[in-house]
Write a structure and sequence with these properties.
The complex is a heterodimer of chains A (about 240) and B (about 120). Chain A is α+β, with helices and mostly antiparallel strands. Chain A is built from 5 helices and 8 strands, in the order ααβαββββββααβ. In chain A, the strands form 2 sheets. Chain A has a 5-stranded antiparallel beta sheet. A 3-stranded antiparallel beta sheet of chain A has the order 4-5-6, covered by helices on one side. Chain A is rod-shaped, with a radius of gyration of 51 Å. Chain B has one domain. The chains are: A alpha+beta (about 240), B mainly alpha (about 120). The interface between A and B is large, with 35 and 47 residues.
Chain lengths: ~240, ~120
């Protein structure tokens, strides 16, 4: 057996300290090993430390990404809300545009100040029809004059005058919107009543001319008249809108 | 008596250390496992170095104790710095102490066989 060299002086105390240090060192060493063993085995299934750290870093990265994505999601939700709001606004605008266009096209009933023009054939004399009766041209002239005076909407005997409405003579009747009308003709026009009235009753104007032919023309101003909507069908068999852009 | 007393005292200390280590409810965080492992390696090297010194009859208690702790701390510190620098510096500790471990073991073996 090899023994430690016996110390020359203070043998006993030195021995003691040697033993003490041996005990201390072995104790610390045992502690280290036990701790290491426990930490190593506590890693589930003996996952290597490197892998663990890698996964930790990855987890942190994923959490960061998650936070970013959550923020993005809230941003996008806000954008969607905004877009929805925008869409409802847009649909409101479209709705008002649509109603305006329907008004232009004569598909809505309108009301407002205007004039009423009643045209009657000359009264029959001696049971025979008069020589002159109201012709389509007379009505066209009245309509034209009213338009010129700023009439915004017109109807004849309940038939709305559209941009496509025809006014033509058919036998004893006058066709408007393919509906047969007969005298007396009641023309309604919305516009500035004074202007409309005076445009017809101007000296040398239509009323004078028609009266000279024996036709009774009465022009009446109204505070409020109702003009019905066009109730037929609109057909565009040949016309197609031009694509722009 | 001396040698065997030292031997048994060492075994006893080791057993007590292991028992305490296994029963203390504290578990070191994963991050420190690496440092602890190189520290344990350094400590093992110091222990073998101490036994070898005892065999060669120039065992110095102060050198033994200071070597034990400074080696362990240096190894752990090296691992820590390596971690911060992004270099696996703990490998240097592992290699250095591993080589010394085998050297010490070889010398120890020779001493025991020569006897």
């Amino acid at each position: 057996m090899i023994m430690p060299k016996p110390p020359v002086r203070g043998e006993q105390s030195l021995k003691k300290s040697v033993y003490l240090s041996v005990v201390t060192v072995s104790l610390v060493f045992g502690l280290l090993i036990a701790f290491q063993f426990r930490t190593s085995s506590s890693i589930s299934g003996g996952v290597p430390v490197d892998r663990f750290q890698e996964l930790t870093i990855e987890k942190k990265q994923v959490e960061l990404d998650n936070a970013h994505l959550e923020q993005e999601a809230t941003d996008l939700a806000a954008k969607i809300d905004e877009a929805r709001k925008g869409r409802s606004q847009a649909s409101d605008v479209l709705g008002s545009e649509l109603s305006k266009i329907r008004m232009y096209a004569g598909l809505t009933q309108l009301t407002g100040p205007g004039v009423e023009v009643i045209m009657e054939n000359p009264p029959e004399k001696d049971g025979s029809p008069s020589f002159y009766s109201i012709r389509d041209e007379d009505i066209l002239k009245v309509i034209n004059d009213l338009r010129g005076a700023g009439a915004e909407a017109m109807s004849i005997n309940g038939q709305r005058i559209l941009s496509t409405s025809e006014i033509r003579l058919a036998g004893n009747h006058i066709n408007v919107n393919l509906v047969r009308l007969s005298a007396p003709y009641r023309i309604l026009a919305i516009g500035k009543p004074g202007t409309l009235k005076s445009s017809l009753e101007i000296k040398g104007g239509l009323v004078e001319y028609l009266s000279a032919n024996g036709i009774t023309v009465a022009v009446q101003e109204w505070e409020k008249i109702n003009i019905p909507a066009y109730d037929g069908s609109l057909r565009f068999d040949y016309a197609k809108p031009v694509q722009r852009g | 008596m001396n040698m065997w007393l030292g031997f048994w005292l060492g075994i006893f200390g080791l057993a007590v250390g292991v028992a305490i280590g296994l029963n203390v409810p504290v578990i070191l965080p994963q991050a420190y496992a690496k440092y602890l492992s190189v520290a344990a390696l350094a400590a093992l090297d110091s222990v073998l170095g101490g036994i070898r010194a005892a065999m060669e009859d120039h065992f110095d208690n102060t050198i033994f104790i200071s070597g034990f702790f400074s080696n362990a701390l240096l190894a752990a510190g090296l691992a820590f710095i390596g971690e911060r620098l992004g270099i696996d510096l703990y490998l240097a500790a592992v290699v250095a102490f591993g080589v010394r471990l085998f050297q010490n073991l070889a010398i120890l073996r020779r001493h025991l066989l020569k006897k």
